[in-house]
Amino acid sequence: MNFKQSLLAAAAATLVGASITAMAAETPSAPTQAERGRYLVRVSGCNDCHTPGYVQNNGQVDEKAWLTGDALGWQGPWGTTYATNLRVLMNDMSEQQWLTHVRTMQPRPPMPWFNTRAMNDDDLKAIYAFVKKLGPAGAPAPAYLPPGKSAAGPVVRFVP
Ligand code: HEC
Questions:
Q1: 17 C-alpha vs ligand 1 centroid, how far in Å?
Q2: Cβ(116) – ligand 1 distance below 6 Å
Q3: For 82-106, how does the pLDDT look when each residue is reduced to its tens digit (9 = 90+)?
Q4: Which atom of ligand 1 sits closest to the CA of residue 102?
Q5: Does the beta carbon of 48 sit less than 6 angstroms from any atom of ligand 1?
């Protein structure tokens, strides 16, 4: 190989290398349904209320405890509510039951049910796949208390 030939060979090798890199960049592996669900749960705020200590710890809570419900009460004119243990609730539901539940439920504040209702079926199915993959864990959250009943534990109060 003379000098010119070896330059050409080097250039060709670089081009092949570049196109392999480009191909790899163009075809990232698509996230699984459960992975997408994990992402949605994370960015749509479900953990903020449904995972104990999530906000207080800047989101640094082990996934094992995600969505296990919380004993922090939300108190206002509606009484005192506790974010549901979704790991237990959803484990007992079929995918179709979950879709129907989200489309029809109207829980008390501060659950933003109008946001979950606006999610499309694919997003809700992805969340379902993720929560089912995590499996059931934890105990049910404390029961709802009607207005005027005092709560045993800490509460966030919405004072009019
Ligand atoms: C601001 C706090 C907050 C956020 C954010 C939040 N929730 Fe809730 N959620 C609650 C509370 C509190 C309840 C219980 C309301 C009640 O007792 O009426 C609840 C109830 C629910 C229920 C009804 C459970 C049942 O028994 O029928 C579902 C389902 C639910 N949340 C799913 C979600 C999902 C999914 C997300 C994220 C997209 C989310 N929530 C975000 C606070 C929150």
A1: 50
A2: yes
A3: 999 999 999 999 999 999 999 999 9
A4: 29
A5: yes
Burial class (CB in 10 A: 0-12, 13-18, 19+), 40: middle
Instruction: Tell me the per-residue pLDDT of 16-46, one tens digit each, with 9 for 90 and over.
Output: 555 555 555 566 788 899 999 999 999 999 9
Q: pLDDT-derived band of residue 113, with 50, 70 and 90 as boundaries?
A: very high
Question: Is the CB–ligand 1 distance for residue 140 below 6 Å?
Answer: no
Mark residue 60 as left, alpha or beta (left: phi above 0; alpha: psi -120 to 50; beta: remaining).
beta
- pTM (2 d.p.): 0.86
Domain boundary assignment for the chain: 1-30, 31-157
Ligand 1 center from residue 105 Cα (angstroms)? 10
Mean pLDDT of 59-76: 98
Nearest Cα to 47, choosing from 125, 134, 155?
A: 134
pLDDT mean over 121-149: 98
DSSP for 74-143 reads EEETTEEEE---HHHHHHTS-HHHHHHHHHH--PPTT--HHHHHTS-HHHHHHHHHHHHHH---SPPPPP
